[in-house]
Structures are given as structure tokens and as C-alpha cells.
Amino acid sequence: MKKSLVLLLALIVLASFAPIFAQATQESGKPYIAVVSKGEQHDFWQQVKLGANAAAKQYGVDITFEGPPSESDVQIQVEMLNNAMAKNPVAIALAALNTSSVLDQLQETKAKGIPVIGFDSGVPEAPAGSIWATASTDNYNAAGMAAKKMFEIIKPAIESATDAKPVKIVVMNQDASGESLLSRGKGFRDTIIQLITTQTKLTKNDIKVMGNVGYIASDSPTMGKKVLIEMVVPASTAMTDATNSAQAVLNKIASDHVLGIFCSNEATVKGLLAATNDGATLKSNAAFKDVVVIGYDAGAGQKNAVRNSYFLGSITQDPYSIGFKAVELAYKAYKGEKVSDVDTGAKFYDKTNMDNADIKGLLYD
Fold first, then answer.
1. Residue 13: its pLDDT value, please?
2. How many CB atoms are closer than 10 A to CB 24?
3. C-alpha distances out from residue 44 to 72, 255, 265, 297, 353, Å
């Protein structure tokens, strides 16, 4: 009798929850899109995640958003991608840390007809047809914008450079493998060379590109003695290495006649800030005060450096738009719509415009 009563009560409880179970089943039936990022720790990626979630809500899809602890954790990202693929997504958005590490996965998605959308740096040199479209900043042109802003200030000093008293411009890059950082370093390099050779009397024979080989093209000028463009990459992506690399540059500011420093992402900016008392030393130290510094991205420390004129300014992407467009493109590809690459935009900000309506929404903390 007791067993019968317990069974009856259990049936009543199950019946009362039937609508909830049905709802859960219905929700789990939404199209699932996997978003595999380069990370989750930086404020930048948190803004990308917000945009991705907003697109998921708008288009009625379920997503997962995950990335490794740091941008050097390639194998962890590969495992995240494998786990996501095991859930049978209708599409994937991927910002690959290393394309060669995900070649098997890309071949599999291509064979199965699963759309893969690149975002941020995308998936450079992926197998033909495996990436349907990419949502990203045009990093090459965005960094070129930084070069133009810096050149406006340092042009007179460049024109005064001689073989005996050369000047240097430093480009700090987190690594030499991520496509977004490679594009930024090369974009700044190429633009500053183009400005020097078209707006001064100097030629390529007066310019030398030096430093990390990943940023020296086969046609880069390497024999000049008047203007040195040093492409700097820390020993690793760890913050201590970024700080040490920045300190090494600062130690030679005076002896190398450094005119400007371009930090190509938030990590290199943080390394420079850590080496300069959050940027204050850039103005309080007489050796540094005339050096023009331009950053990339945002974050509280960088915004403070711009607001206090420690930096001339910075380039901001639109990380929210990157996340939103990545999921939007993935959804449209899944629905059979034609998709193509989307430039998610970039702007230069300084203390005079960073509170403007079209800028302040892009400056995450």
C-alpha cells in the first residue's frame, strides 16, 4: 500500500512538471552556435561576449562562448573547439590562435557543410572554403591610422635625422603569430614608411626595419641609417615579459633617440603602463616627455593614460560589434543566406573626443 502511494505521488509530481520539461525540450531545440574565442580574461573579450549574447537573443539561438586563459594556450583552445563540435552546432564562430592547430577541425566542418565564421583575427590561411566569412576590424588600416597621427607630431624630428644622429620609432607587439597583431604591426610599419618617403626628403635607403623577423617583409628597407623602425615582441605573452620588454625600450629612449612608441594591443599597453607608474613617468621623466605614445584598444588604465595626456591617444575597435556580427553571420550562413566579410570598424580617440557619443560606447573598462 505504501509503495502504491509513493508511486502515485511520484506520478502526480511528474505530471505537475510536464509543462516545464516540455519547455526545456523546446528551448534545447534552438539552433546551437559555438563561439570559440582567443580568450575571456581581457575586458575586450568580455565586450565581444556581450555582443555575441545580444545577437543570440535577437536571432533566437543558443550559443556557448569560451576561450582559453591566455592567448598562448593554443591546445586548450583546440580542446574547446573539439568539445563544441561534439555538440553538433549548426555553425561555429572562431577566432583561431593558430590555424595549423585546427586544420583537422576545419576539414571536418567543411566536409559536413557546417559554416565557420572567423572573428577578430579570424582564421588566417585556412583551407579554401572552410571559412564562410569573417567579422573583424581592418587591423592593417586601423594601425595605419595610428601611424598617421604619430607622424603629424614627429615629422620635424624625422626630417632632422642624420646618419650620425638617427631617430627610432618602436612598435610593440604581443606576439608574431596572431593575424590581428601581425596586421597591426605591418600596417603601422608600412604606413609610417610611406609617410616618410612621400612627405619628407628621405627615401627607403634612409630607413631600416629591425627587430622581430615576423614583422620584417622581404621588401622591407633594412640598410638605412637615419630612421630605425624597431619591431619589438616580448619573450612570451605573460604580463611580466610585456613589462620587461617595455622597460628595455624605456632604458634606451635617450640613447636611441626614440620619437614614438606604438603599442598594438591592450597587453602591450599594460606592459608599458606597468613600467611607467601607470603612464605618469612618461610625463614626469624628462627623458620620456617628448615621446609620442599611441595605444590600441581600451581598458581603464589605457583610458586614464589618454585622458591625462600620457598617451597621445589610442585606436579603439568595436568589440561588441565583433561579437554581434560573428553570431549574426553564423546564423545567416546556417539559414542559407549569402555572407561576406564585415569590417566592424575602428576609431582614433584622445582626450578631446573620448567622451563623444560615437566614441565613449566603444571604450570598455
1. 41
2. 11
3. 17, 35, 10, 8, 20
For residue 216, what is the DSSP state?
-
What count of other Cβ atoms lies within 10 Å of the Cβ of residue 148? 15
Place of cell 577578430: 120
Over the stretch 182-200, which tens digit does the pLDDT of each residue have? 999 999 999 999 999 999 9
Residue type, 24: A
Q: How does DSSP classify residue 222? A: B
b/e sequence 111-145, b meaning 16+ C-beta within 10 Å: eeebbbbbbbbbbbebeeebbbbbbbbbbbebbbb
Long-range contacts of 203-207 (CB under 8 A, 24+ apart): 206/161
**Spatial CA neighbour of 316 closest among 329, 306, 328:** 306
Q: How far apart are CA 69 and CA 273, in angstroms?
A: 22
> Would you say how long the chain is, in residues?
365
Euclidean distance between CA atoms 219 and 204, whole angstroms: 10
Block residue for cell numbers 600620457:
310
pLDDT value for 28 = 54
pLDDT for 17 equals: 39
For residue 182, CA distances in Å to 58, 139, 229, 313, 338 come to: 33, 9, 15, 21, 29
> Judging by beta carbons within 10 Å of its beta carbon (0-12, 13-18, 19+), is residue 311 exposed, middle or buried?
buried
Q: Which of 69, 55, 101, 98 is nearest to 82 (CA)?
A: 101
Cα–Cα distance measured from residue 267 to residue 296, given in angstroms and rounded to the nearest whole number: 9
Helices (H), the chain: 2-16, 18-28, 43-59, 74-85, 103-112, 139-159, 179-199, 239-251, 266-274, 281-284, 300-307, 319-334, 357-360
Q: Can you read off the three cell numbers belonging to residue 26?
A: 523546446
